[in-house]
């Protein structure tokens, strides 16, 4: 707790009380009120035990439709704060009818590999948060894409902790620079929806530190999030909200986090004692009466120290004094149903511009994209799909489509679903772009996946190019499975009929993948000319997609996760969503070999590798240089990227390291830095300088609780993807380096860990 102030310097309020004869008189006691951080100790001292216990449980939101809020104590000057969801835009429950800007899903934003873009989108969200009188936005969400079936993968950034952490750090800075807070979630390892409230995940400390916690560590150190949200699941025994190793030892002590920790909604399991001992300050959305009574009894009988409760109170009040509500920077007006007009138009434009940066061009034969000048009529047809889960206040209409070409999924569902200020679907976007969408057969009926060969022939004759939209959506509450990953028989048939019909009249066919997670392309990709992964591109989907198809904009995204050939190829396949036939147990046996770390080390060929993405132009990489050949503290890697094609474009270069095996085994490659060029015209170039220090390339040694770099010869690999390596530079480490020493209370875990040495 912070040092106490002398009573005289603490602002006070005169309180009134009734005297014995019933008259109201000024009390002799002066009550301190909360005015700033320095006043917190005196305010805590003035709080009754019941007030303290009330404050560690949430108590509803001041802004209607928001996810929750804190408890107010007016006599001490403590206002109620409001928290609302939002990794893809500020969210209010759909019944509140409050609209905000719907941005591309977080996976699409991370596909941009563009930190500035992420910062700008987050700044816009932060402004909308302030505009509505909300204090904290419940994001970024940065769990790892452990398995392609993860139901909330769309809400998370990547299978790689560096990309996830960098994107989440930019999200945090962008939001917090507007004077509102974030809640970095779900800490940690909420990598599946199945039994998320009860599943116990067995994970080695090395895999935790290097993969599942590393992104969170980066955000804490680079961007100081105001709050953290603990996850529902257990890790190696205790629930995250009760896990003192996770919250006290790692988050606060090792990383220096000094903000507030809240539970996920219901994540304290109403066990306030375990929560406080675990280092979690606030139970959301509330702590029930039984939970409160238990905390009180434990304090009174001495089994829970009042200082532990006071530490939580101090963390909560530290948040309060930073908040826009407390600083009177925002006001709550529940009749307000739209983002203020000065934000709405520019944020819609930003959403439209952000989407192409995250779109990934997977295939582009014979330059099918962008459209030729002669293209005027665009044949469009899509699949039908209903999401496996549509819970948590998402309107049912957002979870189903009869024809994805006329109704794409704009975003994922659940707590990441926002009520958008406006929506633009593909037919409208094409019209706005000056094209004529053609989506009917000879009898004038709109076509979907049930079209016949004759219908397809009619469309091919009556349009200049064919666009097939294949959609998948998901959301909180359910994971995917084989049917969400594979094209159905009808979808395969749709692709085949349309491709045959257009190719028969020498016209091209493009598939747009409107998905939030990896989708299998291998069975049908040879049939079509181009495949554009649009993800779920936000509320401006139709405009953004038309911009890219037409060449007004261009795709410059790269895959933030591996697209496997078969679901069975995923290293987590056998242990997702459970292990050993026990629905509440998951063994992370793939250990550190998550995503491309696995595919590259074990030489399993994916459909499209991590970091992959084509463009409308070509890029050459050159002038690879190191400022020295031995790493001791910092080493500089430089190279140039030149646009050698004939169109404008942006490229996302990636820096990987290959390390020698020593005491610790190492994956074949690990991403250590990435960048994005500005828009390069043909012939233009950009120089990149990446600085790498020992911690960047260290591995976690469980036997010494430290991050070590072992001596040997290493390689930097600079590439356009994790397999398309354009330049290699050797460097040496002359002697073993201990880059950092961490808390040594780590879990002892029994696990059959995947190793390249026991295959
Ligand atoms: C989700 C969180 C969300 C919270 C509040 C939970 O069900 O897991 O991501 O922030 O609800 O809506």
From TrEMBL:
<dbReference type="InterPro" id="IPR036962">
    <property type="entry name" value="Glyco_hydro_3_N_sf"/>
</dbReference>
<feature type="compositionally biased region" description="Polar residues">
    <location>
        <begin position="9"/>
        <end position="21"/>
    </location>
</feature>
<protein>
    <submittedName>
        <fullName>Glycosyl hydrolase</fullName>
    </submittedName>
</protein>
<dbReference type="Pfam" id="PF01915">
    <property type="entry name" value="Glyco_hydro_3_C"/>
</dbReference>
<dbReference type="InterPro" id="IPR050288">
    <property type="entry name" value="Cellulose_deg_GH3"/>
</dbReference>
<dbReference type="Pfam" id="PF00933">
    <property type="entry name" value="Glyco_hydro_3"/>
</dbReference>
<dbReference type="InterPro" id="IPR036881">
    <property type="entry name" value="Glyco_hydro_3_C_sf"/>
</dbReference>
<dbReference type="Pfam" id="PF14310">
    <property type="entry name" value="Fn3-like"/>
</dbReference>
<dbReference type="InterPro" id="IPR002772">
    <property type="entry name" value="Glyco_hydro_3_C"/>
</dbReference>
<keyword id="KW-0119">Carbohydrate metabolism</keyword>
<dbReference type="GO" id="GO:0004553">
    <property type="term" value="F:hydrolase activity, hydrolyzing O-glycosyl compounds"/>
</dbReference>
<dbReference type="InterPro" id="IPR001764">
    <property type="entry name" value="Glyco_hydro_3_N"/>
</dbReference>
<dbReference type="InterPro" id="IPR026891">
    <property type="entry name" value="Fn3-like"/>
</dbReference>
<dbReference type="InterPro" id="IPR017853">
    <property type="entry name" value="GH"/>
</dbReference>
<dbReference type="GO" id="GO:0005975">
    <property type="term" value="P:carbohydrate metabolic process"/>
</dbReference>
<comment type="similarity">
    <text>Belongs to the glycosyl hydrolase 3 family.</text>
</comment>
<dbReference type="InterPro" id="IPR019800">
    <property type="entry name" value="Glyco_hydro_3_AS"/>
</dbReference>
<keyword id="KW-0326">Glycosidase</keyword>
<feature type="domain" description="Fibronectin type III-like">
    <location>
        <begin position="651"/>
        <end position="722"/>
    </location>
</feature>
<feature type="region of interest" description="Disordered">
    <location>
        <begin position="1"/>
        <end position="21"/>
    </location>
</feature>
<keyword id="KW-0378">Hydrolase</keyword>
<dbReference type="InterPro" id="IPR013783">
    <property type="entry name" value="Ig-like_fold"/>
</dbReference>
């Amino acid at each position: 707790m912070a040092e106490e102030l002398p009573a005289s310097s603490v602002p006070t309020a005169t309180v009134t009380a009734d005297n014995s004869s019933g008259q109201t008189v000024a009390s002799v006691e002066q009550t301190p009120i909360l005015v700033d951080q320095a006043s917190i100790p005196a305010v805590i001292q003035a709080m009754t035990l019941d007030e303290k216990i009330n404050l560690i449980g949430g108590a509803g939101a001041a802004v209607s439709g928001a996810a929750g809020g804190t408890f107010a104590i007016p006599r001490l000057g403590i206002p109620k704060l409001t928290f609302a969801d939002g990794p893809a835009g500020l969210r209010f429950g759909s019944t509140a009818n409050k609209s905000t800007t719907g941005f591309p899903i977080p996976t699409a934003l991370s596909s941009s590999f563009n930190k500035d873009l992420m910062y700008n989108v987050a700044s816009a969200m932060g402004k909308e948060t302030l505009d509505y009188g909300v204090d904290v936005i419940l994001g970024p969400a940065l769990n790892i894409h452990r398995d392609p079936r993860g139901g909330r993968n769309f809400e998370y950034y990547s299978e790689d902790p560096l990309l996830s952490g960098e994107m989440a750090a930019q999200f945090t800075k962008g939001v917090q620079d507007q004077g509102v807070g974030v809640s970095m979630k779900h800490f940690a390892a909420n990598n599946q929806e199945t039994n998320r409230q009860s599943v116990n995940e067995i994970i080695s400390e090395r895999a935790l530190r290097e993969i599942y916690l590393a992104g969170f560590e980066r955000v804490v150190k680079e961007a100081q999030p105001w709050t953290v949200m603990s996850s529902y699941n257990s890790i190696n025994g205790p629930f995250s909200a009760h896990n003192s190793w996770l919250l006290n030892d790692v988050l606060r002590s090792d990383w220096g986090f000094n903000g507030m920790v809240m539970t996920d909604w219901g994540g304290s399991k109403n066990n306030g004692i375990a929560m406080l001992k675990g280092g979690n300050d606030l139970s959301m959305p509330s702590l029930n009466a039984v939970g409160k009574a238990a905390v009180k009894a434990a304090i009174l009988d001495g089994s829970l120290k009042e200082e532990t409760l006071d530490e939580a109170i101090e963390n909560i009040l530290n948040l309060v004094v930073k908040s826009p509500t407390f600083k009177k920077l925002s006001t709550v007006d529940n009749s307000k149903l739209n983002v203020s007009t000065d934000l709405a138009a520019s944020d819609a434009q930003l959403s439209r511009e952000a989407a192409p940066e995250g779109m990934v061009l997977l295939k582009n034969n014979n330059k099918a994209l962008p459209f030729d000048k002669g293209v005027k009529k665009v044949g469009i047809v899509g699949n039908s799909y209903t999401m496996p889960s549509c819970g948590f206040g998402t309107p049912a209409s957002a979870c189903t489509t009869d024809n994805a070409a006329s109704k794409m999924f704009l975003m994922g569902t659940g707590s990441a679903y926002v009520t958008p200020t406006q929506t633009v679907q593909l037919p409208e976007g094409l019209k706005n772009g000056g094209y004529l969408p053609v989506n009917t057969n000879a009898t004038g009926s709109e076509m979907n996946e049930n079209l016949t060969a004759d219908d397809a022939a009619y469309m091919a004759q009556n349009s200049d190019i064919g666009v097939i939209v294949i959609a998948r959506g998901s959301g909180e509450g359910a994971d995917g499975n084989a049917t969400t990953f594979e094209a159905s028989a009808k979808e395969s048939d749709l692709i085949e009929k349309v491709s045959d019909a257009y190719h028969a009249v020498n016209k091209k066919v493009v598939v747009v993948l409107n998905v939030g997670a990896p989708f299998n392309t291998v069975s049908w990709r040879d049939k079509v000319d181009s495949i554009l992964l649009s993800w779920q591109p936000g509320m401006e989907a139709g405009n953004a997609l038309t911009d890219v198809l037409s060449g007004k904009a261009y795709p410059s995204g790269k895959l933030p996760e591996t697209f496997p050939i078969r679901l069975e190829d995923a290293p987590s396949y056998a242990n997702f969503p459970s292990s050993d036939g026990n629905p509440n147990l998951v063994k992370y046996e793939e250990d550190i070999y998550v995503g491309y770390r696995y595919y590259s080390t074990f030489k399993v060929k994916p459909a499209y590798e991590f970091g992959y993405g084509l463009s409308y132009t070509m890029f050459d990489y050159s002038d690879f240089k190191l400022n020295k050949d031995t790493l001791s503290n910092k080493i500089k890697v430089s190279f140039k990227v030149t646009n050698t094609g004939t169109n404008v474009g942006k490229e996302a270069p990636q820096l990987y390291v290959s390390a020698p095996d020593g005491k610790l085994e190492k994956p074949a490659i690990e991403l250590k830095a990435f960048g994005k060029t500005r828009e390069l015209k043909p012939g233009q170039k950009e120089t990149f300088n990446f600085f790498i220090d020992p911690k960047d390339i260290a591995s976690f040694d469980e036997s010494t609780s430290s991050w070590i770099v072992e001596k040997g010869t290493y390689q930097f690999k600079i590439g356009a993807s994790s397999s398309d390596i354009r330049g290699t530079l050797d460097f040496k480490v002359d002697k073993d380096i201990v880059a950092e020493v961490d808390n040594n209370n780590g879990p002892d875990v029994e696990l059959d860990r995947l190793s390249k040495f026991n295959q």
